[in-house]
Design goal:
By secondary structure, the chain is α+β, with helices and mostly antiparallel strands. The protein has 4 helices and 9 strands. The strands form 2 sheets. Strands 1-2-3-9-8-5 form a 6-stranded antiparallel beta sheet. It has a 3-stranded antiparallel beta sheet with strand order 4-6-7. Strand 6 and strand 7 form a beta hairpin. The protein is globular, with a radius of gyration of 13 Å.
């Protein structure tokens, strides 16, 4: 089980786990629940540059289509192909096997990231 208090969160319902200068990014359990059954995931290609706040992918569910926003500036170094092949991983294990991309951070983390308590307040 991932330590949810060790993660950073965005107001767009993404989580970030930083390891050195590489951030693993996924959507939260709250977002996965609101989306419903995820049936398709479109992620940026490895090597792509992403800019914080810009759309970098798409998550489709049986209920709706949601945009994936880059939570930070950097370069995509890895994409979770398992999620592309089996989008239900996003629902089944959003903080584990359902991660989406790994991004090499360019500069500092955005100042507006939330800790777990602040994220829980946001979604209450």
């Amino acid at each position: 089980m991932t330590d949810l208090t060790a993660l950073s969160y965005t107001s767009e319902h993404e989580w970030i786990a930083l390891d050195g200068d590489v951030a693993t990014v996924g959507i939260t359990d709250f977002a996965a629940e609101k989306l419903g059954d995820v049936v398709f995931v479109d992620l940026p290609a490895a090597g792509s540059a992403v800019t914080a706040g810009d759309v970098c992918g798409e998550i489709e569910s049986t209920k709706s289509v949601g945009e994936l926003y880059a939570p930070l500036d950097g370069t995509v170094v890895e994409v979770n192909d398992a999620v592309v092949d089996d989008p239900s991983l996003v629902n089944a294990d959003p903080f584990g096997d359902g991660w989406l991309v790994k991004i090499r951070l360019d500069g500092d983390l955005p100042a507006d990231l939330l800790d777990r308590a602040a994220y829980e307040d946001l979604t209450a």
